Amino acid sequence: VLEANPAHVKGLYRRGMAYMGNGDFDEARADFKMMMKVDKSTESDANAALLKLKQKEQVG
């Protein structure tokens, strides 16, 4: 989906969550930030994902 439409919010969220699950924190952060840039209405979801990401980074 993201190859055809790099600004697909749901795709960005899902890929970001997959990156986070694999420990690819920088890539996950980039996707969550792109979500907010593309669609301001996703800001609360993206911020929640970024908070979860930060917690995972601290745990290691």
Automatic annotation (TrEMBL):
- Does GTP-binding count among this protein's keywords? no
One Pfam family per UniProt: TPR_2
TPR-type repeats, residues? 9-42
Q: Name one GO molecular function term.
A: isomerase activity
Question: Which InterPro entries does the record cross-reference, listed alphabetically?
Answer: FKBP4/5/8-like, TPR-like_helical_dom_sf, TPR_2, TPR_rpt
- Looking at the keywords, is Repeat present? yes
SUPFAM superfamilies attached to this UniProt entry: TPR-like
Alphabetically list the UniProt keywords.
Isomerase, Phosphoprotein, Repeat, TPR repeat
User: What PANTHER family does the annotation carry?
Assistant: PEPTIDYLPROLYL ISOMERASE
Q: Name it.
A: Peptidyl-prolyl cis-trans isomerase PASTICCINO1-like
